[in-house]
Write a structure and sequence with these properties.
RNA-directed DNA polymerase, globular, 245 residues, RNA-directed DNA polymerase from transposon BS, RNA-directed DNA polymerase activity, 4 strands, two-stranded antiparallel sheet, 3 domains, nucleotidyltransferase
Length: 245
């Protein structure tokens, strides 16, 4: 770290170990790291990372924050038009559900269900639909993608940016086309999917999960000429899958 002019700040720096917790103390330049005090969960850019990458505490925080905001929004609903209230829902709820949601790719379905519960509650508050009534048709009428598909949407948007020079090189380098060969798949814009040894973590890495999602897209979406057109076609495609239309 000293070679890069970096130094650990004992009062601010948080360290987390991914893997075995039985790791001896080590030294980084002039700083000594005591692994006995290493945290099981750290915050980076407002996201809580746990050593197992399950994001349980992060999702707990998002759900708690969203329901707090929904209770506050319910008090001002009568003062706003439907359009303006929907804008408020997106600003206070959808924003929290979408923030860094690409990290949720591959997490267990129960965690996704908790986030979906928040979106369902937001849709009920906006439209006035009661708890016992089905929510799927309401989400469809609002043109809201379910949480699981919003995650896929975010990842695929990032892949398109990587392939079109709109993303940082450290991400673009992870997306590579198949070597050109005289195969039927040569014109399908397929990306190379690296092998992984760990399904619970390795298969969720961007370099592996993102190409898998991309390769499933129809060719007319992958070859969209601009980001705006790709975004529109992708949302329509995912919307049709989500609601079987």
């Amino acid at each position: 770290m000293s070679l890069n002019f970096l130094k650990l700040n004992e009062s601010k720096t948080e360290i987390i170990v991914f893997g075995s917790s039985d790791v001896p103390n080590t030294h980084h330049g002039n700083s000594s790291v005591l692994f006995s005090s290493v945290k099981s969960c750290v915050k980076n850019l407002g996201v809580l990372f746990d050593s197992a990458l399950k994001f349980d505490r992060q999702i707990n925080l998002v759900v708690k924050s969203c329901f707090y905001q929904l209770r506050a929004l319910a008090k001002v609903k009568t003062f706003l038009s439907f359009k303006h209230f929907e804008t408020a829902i997106h600003a206070f709820i959808s924003f929290r559900l979408d923030y860094c949601n690409s990290l949720y790719l591959g997490i267990n379905s129960s965690s996704i269900s908790r986030l979906q519960m928040v979106q369902n509650a937001a849709a009920r508050l906006l439209t006035g639909v009661r708890k016992h009534e089905h929510i799927t048709s309401v989400l469809r009428s609002l043109h809201w993608l379910p949480v699981r598909f919003r995650i896929d949407f975010k990842v695929l948007m990032l892949v398109f940016k990587c392939l079109n020079g709109l993303a940082p090189s450290y991400l673009s380098d992870l997306c590579e086309y198949h070597p050109e060969r005289t195969l039927r798949s040569a014109n399908q814009s397929l990306l190379t999917v690296p092998k992984s040894k760990l399904k619970s973590r390795g298969d969720r890495a961007f370099a592996i999960a993102a190409p898998k999602l991309w390769n499933k897209l129809p060719i007319h979406i992958k070859t969209a000429p601009t980001l705006h057109i790709f975004k529109s076609k992708l949302k329509t495609y995912l919307f049709n899958i989500a609601y079987d239309s």
